[in-house]
Amino acid sequence: MQDKDNPKQHPGSNMEKDPRDWLSGDEPMTGAQASYLKTLSEQADEPDAYADGLSKAEASERIDALKRKLGLEDEDGR
Predict the structure, then answer these.
(1) Terminus of the chain with fewer CB atoms < 10 Å: N or C?
(2) Which of 33, 37, 36, 9 lies closest to 22, judged by CA?
(3) pTM of the entire structure?
(4) Closest by CA position to 18, among listed 74, 70, 56
(5) Do the beta carbons of residue 13 and residue 7 sit within 8 Å?
(6) Residue 52: count of CB within 10 angstroms of its CB
(7) Which residues contact 60 (CB under 8 A, 6 or more apart)?
């Protein structure tokens, strides 16, 4: 019998969580986020989308917005 609340049974479920609800959302953005956000902001011709000192949640939201603008999302909106 499978446990419905076991995250191992739903590996993609954490990808659906709003970044503002992340426990680590207030931590500084990761190096990978910073690099990707910088690249996307340059591609979208929106240099102000990148800023030092963003949180993980803020960086994630900006990355998602730039991906939408550039048409880089897949069918699931990721």
Answers:
(1) N
(2) 33
(3) 0.68
(4) 56
(5) yes
(6) 7
(7) 19, 25, 33
